[in-house]
Amino acid sequence: MTSAALTPEQSAARARRFGWWYFAESQLRAMRAYLGAMTLSAVLEPVLYLLAMGVGLGALVDAQSGPVDGVPYLEFVAPALLVASLVTSVGPEMTYPVMDGFKWHRLYYAPAATAVTPRQVAVGHFVAVMIRFCVQACTFYLVMLAFGAVRPGWSALMIPVGVLAAAAAGAPLQAFAATREDEGDAFVFVQRFVVMPMFLFSGTFFPLAAMPVYLQWIGWVSPVWHGSQLARLAAYGAEVPGWLVAVHVAMLLGLAVGGVWWARSVYDRRLGA
Amino acid sequence: MQPVIEGRGLTKAYGNLVAVDGIDFAVEPGESFGLLGPNGAGKSTTMRLIGGTLDRTGGTLQVAGLDPGQEGPRVRAHLGVVPQQDNLDEELRVAENLIMYGRYFGLSRSHLKPKAEELLDFVQLRDKSHAKVSSLSGGMKRRLTIARGLVNDPSILLLDEPTTGLDPQARHTLWDRLFRLKEVGTTLVVTTHFMDEAEQLCDRLIVIDRGTIMAQGSPRELIREHSTREVLELRFGSARNASVVDSLGDVARRLEVLPDRILLYAHDGEEALGEIHRRGLSPVTSLVRRSSLEDVFLRLTGRSLVD
Question: Which of A117, A228, B81, B136 could form a disulfide with B140 if both were Cys (CB 3.0 to 4.6 A apart)?
Fold first, then answer.
């Protein structure tokens, strides 16, 4: 045996600082097995969305009612589609892999037996998914540029906005998934009856104000609406009052930070002392 | 010498259920220490307490001079852990599993690449370095899990039921690798419900049942203390086993009637068998063997390990 490069004390000190990253790194490495499928979907999804909603539906809307929110329909819908696409993709990344970690392949128990803590495992999983989503958001943005749905410049801020919206939806979902001993129908239910309504009723395809008042609350609690409004602000300078910008950012940050905090404590309970 | 692991009055309770009930034990450096007992005896719970992934409810515990309840990550930096269930990452290749696991100890890739090759050599999986984990046999996966547990050059290796589910050849290959680790001074802590494994691997062990220690010592000491040198196993057929017991009573020092056979504990098994024949009894089968830890466990608990 060669001598260890680090003493146990040095190992523990490094893991204390970077344990979350070590687990994220391993998750990202494992994603390479699906790199082809992930790349294909990252490119195809925006192409299909923008063709169908932006170009197809957009031609009809522009012809019938003129600009929406002061811009052609494609420009109005594209930033929200970026946000919605990321938020709807976060479900499968924060549910079944979490169950895999705790139950199916018990992957989380491997780092939990090392100098890495359960809380760092929770954060590592979250960070790995967000890094993947950064790439997905960049791809979406590049396709938007190719479609002429956005002008380059400040509009690129919609990339971090989209990732933040995905974090706001994903972190609480990750914590919820971690509380489940068994998948049952819970994940399908969440995808169909929580994520889908957020997609449909959060001002993605039309301004939230166009909906009846009794449905508008869905937008207010939805990361899709808060993210979409910020993305529109970045994309074409949509009129959003300063206080509302603060509310959008606070909502997204609150959900993301609260979700990660919740996930950390659930992982700690299940994997740790 | 200062023990590397020492538990005093170690207790873990889940509400009213006491999984580990005030056990005392100490593991010396370089020793191969076993926890032998049936499923549900408290062995795995004790392992988790040692690794600090479970909080004790009473007693004291020191691992490498640290309290695992307070200093879990620091304690685990000293340990290699081979869990009961393999939890290899099937999305990663064989060598990558070792490298990524080594990263959890803060080790650099430049250190880990040659280290992974060295460990794969050690567990005889070098030619599988780039293979998918899913293509490995059960025995290979176990060996890979052991290699993974060694990636940080731990001074203590915890093995929870290391050979459960393996065929005899795979078990012997694995035991051979563990012997070699012992030779280089690694402290092994092994839980098992296989008495042959405990006899093969352990310098010293505790026999544990329902969370308490029934006996402790080396396999040889335990057998000498709690059993006879030899055992005569007789089968008269399940219908007759009980009816012939009265005629056997004084042939051996002790006698156990199991559903399928009768065990006679005697210093000289052949002589006891001769006496059985002289009494005109004709068992369907007879076997003289040396006492094992199974006999010790039966004596101590009145139950077989596989009950």
Answer: B136
